[in-house]
Design a protein that fits this description.
The chain is an alpha+beta fold. Helix content is about 50%, strand content about 25%. The protein has one domain.
C-alpha cells in the first residue's frame, strides 16, 4: 500500500466515524424516544417489548405478542449516510412473512419518519398474525368437519 492509499484510508475511516457518530445522535433523539412511546402503548396491550444491546450504527427493537409471534424492527447504517429500517415479522404457521425495509438519508431521519416505521411494522405484524390465526382456524374447521 502506498502513502496516498494509507492517507486515503485514514480519511475514509474518519468520515465513517463522523457519520456513525451522527447516527448515534439520531438514535438518541428519534429512535429511542419513538421506541419508548411505542413500548408504553404496546406493553399494556399484552406485548413483551425489548431493545437488545446492539453495536454502534444499529438499533434493534422487539415487540412480542407470543413466544412464536413477534416483530423485529432494525435500524442500521448502510454506507456512509443511509439509514435502513428493516421489519421482520414472525408469526405462527407455515407461511413466512417477507421482510420489508425502507431507507432514508440520515439527515432526513426525524421523529415522524421513525414513528411511521414503528407504526407500519406493528400494523404489518398484527395483520400477518391475524391472517395466520384465521388460516389455522380454517384448518381446524376442516379437521372437525372432515
Amino acid at each position: 500500500m502506498n502513502d496516498w492509499q494509507r492517507s486515503f484510508l485514514q480519511k475514509l475511516e474518519a468520515a465513517k466515524k463522523q457519520w456513525l457518530h451522527k447516527f448515534e445522535d439520531v438514535a438518541a433523539e428519534c429512535l429511542e424516544p419513538a421506541f419508548s412511546e411505542f413500548d408504553q402503548f404496546a406493553t399494556p396491550q399484552g406485548f413483551t417489548v425489548s431493545a437488545p444491546a446492539c453495536e454502534p450504527g444499529t438499533r434493534l427493537f422487539k415487540f412480542g405478542l407470543t413466544e412464536n409471534g413477534y416483530v423485529l424492527i432494525t435500524f442500521r447504517m448502510r454506507g456512509l449516510e443511509t439509514v435502513e429500517a428493516c421489519t421482520e415479522a414472525f408469526v405462527p404457521g407455515p407461511e413466512e412473512v417477507e421482510p420489508v425495509s425502507a431507507e432514508a438519508n440520515l439527515c432526513n431521519v426525524d421523529q415522524p419518519w421513525t414513528r411511521q416505521r414503528f407504526e407500519q411494522a406493528l400494523d404489518r405484524f398484527i395483520i400477518s398474525f391475524s391472517t395466520a390465526g384465521a388460516a389455522d382456524a380454517g384448518r381446524v374447521d376442516e379437521l372437525v368437519t372432515g
